[in-house]
Design brief:
heterodimer; A: alpha+beta; Alpha-Beta Plaits; two-stranded antiparallel sheet; 6 strands; 30% helix; B: mainly alpha; 2 domains; 5 strands; globular
Chain lengths: 279, 272
């Protein structure tokens, strides 16, 4: 701290009694330290909270849930270095993304879904976890990846206009699983068919090859993080015709509320004006 | 030639170490070298030995992350190396920011700023407060607080993976150290330096002072980035025991009287 202050305090202390002044200096310095720490801490935490709020990032395969990812990723870039296609990047200052964390932009370079998934096993912190991209036998299986979910903008997809285009369908590495073509009659011409791409969330890994292949100026099929792209039904609606879906209820719990039956006769209840009239 | 060796041998060696480490990391990303992959936050040596920044791992722990074995082993390797052997060597032999702040400090000396601003208006203990705050924020917000603002990572990661606006961080550090505060970043604020100061206080490699040879020229204190650690110069013969000494060796090489030198701590204690 300021030595000038200390010295001037020392001179004064001879007059006022040394103990008193030493205590004051100590208290003042402590308070100043705490004040500075509070100010610094406030700015720092506000900044950090802000820069980690971004939700629209696509993470490498096997990435754990975003909130955990942000505290676990050590930003070493080993995943980036092991990606043979230069798909992954580390967020740079000025990118407005959580600094130093890996992400990819599929329209530029999508994930080519290597079968040996070189980016995942090198992660030293398990922010990219092998289990999340492994099958039941414990072998790496890139089709288990959940990097995101492709979403079709049906207003700007030319297949929905009736123009034949199956670029995304053909580009998809899980052909006929993640994207299927739905045929329907084109009533406008009366003699053509729509070949509409439909994405299936249970198969789509979010690799983004469809987004890369899309022929429109700005991709009409694009990958969003799953939490952003998907809604959630909740436990109130169940497909009663689907035994699988009914299983969702097994772990569901609800609040059971009981209203006591009134002892009074219905007439009394109807005639009771209590609270409605001014008395 | 021998004058260069006498006066700059550690400085030159440090620059070689700093730049070749940087080169190995860049080579790993650009040409796929397998010697040292990753960056200073976490690396892989010869594709087998994990190395991790123990301060980053400490923040991960505070944030409530599940720590993987790999990163714990890596942090232990680094921690043991500096705690037992090197002390705070990271700062002067590895960290890329050292070159920026050394340049600022060099210019300060050449331009005579140190003569104008004799007293520094800040305490060097600030870094320990910053460590405390970083852990509190990590805990409260569930993120590694310093890792998201660290100019060290910005510079180092930037040079390997793409700089972005990282050059601004470099410039700010340089200007801050040049005009605002002598040894401002490395000697006052940087919590990583503070962390290694705490870790390195018991390490073996130490600068030792021989008072009998000292002529009180004080060149060592002028050049030292943490001159409070040289409090014994001209007074007692003893090793520099403070963990804040970065073992940069500048004091050893500027000394005209051979009054300072590197030695193993306990060996010299036996000599007494």
């Amino acid at each position: 701290m300021s030595n000038n202050n200390l010295e001037s305090e020392k001179k004064m202390s001879k007059k006022q009694g040394e103990q008193n002044s030493a205590r004051r200096t100590f208290l003042l310095n402590t308070a100043r330290g705490l004040g500075l720490a509070a100010l610094g801490g406030l700015v720092w935490s506000a900044y950090v909270d802000e820069v980690t709020a971004s939700q629209l990032l696509l993470r490498p395969p096997g990435a754990i849930e975003e909130e955990e990812f942000l505290k676990t990723c050590i930003k070493c870039g080993l995943c980036v270095e092991h990606c043979p296609f230069d798909t992954l990047e580390l967020a740079k200052p000025g990118d407005n993304k959580p600094l130093g964390t890996p992400y990819f932009i599929p329209r530029e370079v999508p994930c080519y879904m290597c079968t040996d998934i070189p980016c995942v096993p090198v992660c030293p912190t398990n922010a990219l976890e092998e289990k999340l991209v492994s099958n039941d036998e414990g072998e790496l299986d890139i089709t288990k990846a959940q990097m995101g979910l492709a979403v079709v903008d049906v207003e700007n997809c030319i297949a929905f206009w009736g123009i034949q285009c199956d670029a995304c369908y053909r580009a998809c590495p899980l052909l006929d699983e993640a994207i299927t073509l739905e045929y329907s009659k084109n009533e406008r011409t009366g003699k053509h068919a729509f070949l509409k791409p439909v994405v299936h969330s249970d198969a789509c890994t979010g690799c983004g090859l469809c987004e890369r292949a899309c022929v429109t100026e700005k991709a009409a099929i694009f990958v969003l993080p799953k939490e952003v792209a998907q809604g959630k039904v909740g436990d109130h609606y169940i497909k009663g015709w689907d035994a699988e879906d009914e299983k969702r209820l097994e772990n569901a719990f609800g609040e059971e509320t009981k209203t006591e039956l009134s002892e009074r006769s219905p007439m009394d209840s109807l005639n009771d004006m209590g609270g409605l009239l001014d008395e | 030639m021998s004058r260069i060796y006498d006066k700059y041998r550690f400085l030159i060696l440090r620059r070689i170490v700093q730049i070749s480490l940087m080169g190995l990391y860049i080579g790993a990303n650009v040409w796929g070298w397998k010697i040292l992959q990753g960056n200073l936050s976490s690396s892989l040596l010869f594709e087998t030995v994990p190395l991790s920044d123990p301060y980053a791992v400490l923040q991960m722990f505070a944030a409530g992350s599940l720590l993987a074995t790999n990163v714990l082993v890596g942090a232990a390797v680094i921690l043991l190396f500096y705690a037992l052997l090197g002390g705070r060597m990271f700062c002067s032999w590895v960290c890329p920011v050292n070159m920026i702040t050394d340049l600022a400090n060099f210019l300060r000396r050449k331009l005579g700023f140190n003569a104008i601003q004799k007293r520094q208006p800040a305490t060097r203990n600030m870094r320990y407060w910053v460590i405390g705050i970083s852990l509190v924020i990590s805990f409260a917000f569930g993120i590694t607080a310093f890792e998201f603002v660290s100019p060290i990572s910005m510079v180092h990661r930037g040079l390997i993976f793409g700089l972005g606006f990282g050059w601004a961080a470099m410039l700010v550090l340089f200007l801050f150290d040049l005009f605002v505060l002598k040894n401002g970043w490395c000697g006052h604020i940087c919590p990583l330096g503070g962390f290694y100061s705490l870790v390195g206080r018991f390490s073996f490699i130490r600068v030792h002072h021989n008072e009998a040879k000292c002529t009180l020229c004080m060149k060592c204190k002028e050049v030292c980035p943490e001159k409070q650690v040289l409090h014994m110069v001209g007074k007692h013969s003893e090793p520099v025991l403070s963990g804040e000494c970065t073992n940069c060796g500048r004091c050893v090489e500027v000394c005209d009287d051979d009054a300072l030198g590197f030695a193993i701590k306990n060996l010299s204690a036996q000599k007494k």
